[in-house]
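Standup notes, structure subgroup. Blocker cleared on the protoporphyrin IX containing FE input:
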Amino acid sequence: MGVEVWLLVAGVVMAAWAYSRWRHSYWSSRGVSTPPYLPFLGHIHKILSLSQSRWHYFDEVYHKYGGSTFSGLYELFHPVLMIGDPDLLKNILVKDFDHFVDRRKFLSEEGSISNEMLINLTGDEWKTLRGIMSPTFTSGKMRSMFPLMCEKADALVSFSLKEAANKPFVDMKVNFGRFAMDTIASCAFGIECNSFKSEVPEFSKYADMFFNFSFLTIIKFTLFNMFPTIGNALRIKIDSPCTKFFSNVVEETIAARNAGQRRGDYLDLLLDARADVNHPIITDTSIVPHNQSTTTQGQTAQETIITDTSIVPHNQSTTTQDRTAQETIITDTSTVPHNQSTTTQDRTAQETISHDSFVTNVNSIPVNHSKQVLTSKSIVAQSVLFLVAGYDTTASTLAFSSFLLAKHPIHQQRLREEIKQIIHEYGDITYQGIMEAKFLNACLMETLRLYPPSTFEERQCTKTYKIPGTEVTLHPGDVVTYPLWSLHHDPRYWPEPEEFQPDRFLPENKPNITSFTHIPFGMGPRNCIGMRFALMEAKVALAKLLLAAEIHLDKNHTELKTGKSLLVLRPDEGVNLVITPITSNTHG
Ligand code: HEM
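Run returned:
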């Protein structure tokens, strides 16, 4: 090769290197420090590492590179800001939410229903859909789903006891998975998947696929999202076969509903939004709770929503429609202040899910009613999302909590005593009793602190935003990530952070908790929409299980392994427990 060619190659390399340096000066030019990074790659090799889960790398950034306040990262050239300061998070997730309404879109191939799921929607589309879906999770709806949850929990207990009679230990992760799937399918869609009746439950098998990301899938996914046009041109497929399976199930169920079988459940809410938003149809209101203010059987879905939102004070001056929109949104933010007029159990519901007492400015997130019409595809998308989003998260939470309670028999016995006390008071496991069970709530909160299924979350900046108290300005498109796992394990907020100490979450100790350091469901108007549902079903399952059996660690499975799954936190090798039935003599 001639000298000219070498010079040309050297010139191209230097220009590329200078370009990379320029792109990677995004954070330093704004006064934000960054962990060491590689030219061109930035931090992507760390974020997508095969040898280390993402939350472990984030924890390193949090502790070593300023992430506990904020630290700049690059996914190739794309800037991502990690924010670990609870006060700043409060601003981003709640106070200045209107600058961070969106999450980064994670696209799948063109035409995929994943692109239409709530989790992926942005701006007005998200607001409208969230407003439609939220009424599924009001306290009234939870109360009406309670008997179904109890039925599924009974099935879980008898199945687990039967297994325990024939095996030295039972993998409770698998059984909680069956329970979570049966509960969601039954409560939201009236589908009976009978997971306890088959050796390999079909629904759980497909839902598992959704979460078993191989490294190749993550690479394909990342590249596709960085270069969607190329991804589509190359016809890269990201959707897992599970999406097709669940779509078919939902489509069949919708066909049955169209033929007249209505239940007033989640699916009907979506179908009503498709049918005619001003005159929604509820032909069978059996699942809708009876309320004092309910007048006629044929009341509209919107009226039903209003009667459900008993935890929110009604603003006399708003019109019915406005009130519905506001209440719909208020009820799903865990930041609503306690109100004098709320009933005991509703207040407990709020306390269960929040230690924060400041207001989200819901008026800043208006809902446009005229657009509340869903396409059939969107309905299928939200239904599939419901099935998969609530499955692994809830099953893992239950598996982790059962492991921790087996490891700490004193807490297990204390919890059992609390449940017996509730039965003594209410005659049975009731909605109200469960809502008032403080130690049960504390055990779940502490489990979610130690093992949050989602270890980090994101928001995308939608309007130019100066981070309060700094000179740093974020621009539309910048991504903010918050390290849930690190906040939950930070010894500054949680003394002896690795210890299972449920008492931290008892009402008398809640003043010691720093706001925004325990956020397993996220926070603010875009928090987890299924939080109440997940907590209620987890509480019912734990209560029923501990009442019927003692759980112990198996001697060969005393350690919990996590970290194989690179994105979500779950027990890698199940949770194998020895289950000993409690006879009726020892029961009372
Ligand atoms: C223990 C169980 C669960 C945990 C720990 C959990 C956690 C989370 C977290 C951390 C987020 C993101 C919040 C944020 O960005 O601030 C989220 C969002 C979401 N979750 Fe859950 N979740 C659970 C159960 C459920 C259930 C049962 C459902 C459905 C019934 C569900 C449906 C969703 C949906 C649809 C979103 C997206 C909300 C939106 O973008 O508006 N989750 N969840």
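Discussed briefly. The domain at 117-454+489-587 is CATH 1.10.630.10 (Cytochrome p450).
Next: hand off to the docking folks.
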